[in-house]
Predict the structure.
Amino acid sequence: MKYLPLFLLILLAACDSKPPVYATINGLVVDIPFDGNPIENVSGVTGAVYRATYAADHHGNAGRAMYFNSADSATVDFGALPLASFDSTNQFTISCWVKVADTIGSIAVLSKRGVTGPWEYAIDNQFNHNGFILDNWTPNGITSVYGTDPLNAMAVITPGQWQHLAYVGDGTSLKVYVNGILQAGSDAHNAYYTFAPTAAHLVIGNGGGYGRNYYFNGCIDDIKMFNRALSAANIQTLAAE
């Protein structure tokens, strides 16, 4: 057997280690791929896993996503995680993959809130079990930063199938994409109200309103947050990963 020249081995290694496509998108502040561990890659914080287990991701790769059984109150808790708080510009993007078992009850993909406050946001289906909305509040929970009717920006759930969700706030409106496609409707920004950092924990697999715990039922993968409003092309890149 002939040995490959050293320069060719180095070239092949460089090709194997090339960064993922999304790495070219600026503004990434939270990156939780669940690739065999619960580490948030930007800050290096390791999430505390409570009864959640590993599962196959949307490519069918074993152990590269997390399964949450609502009956077990399964969650992954990353603590306060300051980079997951949005600032007063009200510009952000949340991207994630979900595979919902069913739409029988209220469930939440993730949240940054305390059960009785403080409040920031949650992705849940509490207002319509057939679709996920981004609940977003001022820290005291009195009002929403975007919209008076969150169902205006709703991602319809298809149970049993992996779906890519992206919520984009640009300081004027909140939009939602499903599998890279912009959905009809958006929530207008409420003038004079802004996000503010709190000590609330970023929790994967739970959320809800005051005093509520809506535990997720199904699989969650590849959570990313950006500190700016991504373009439609950026969202399509994330949905194609």
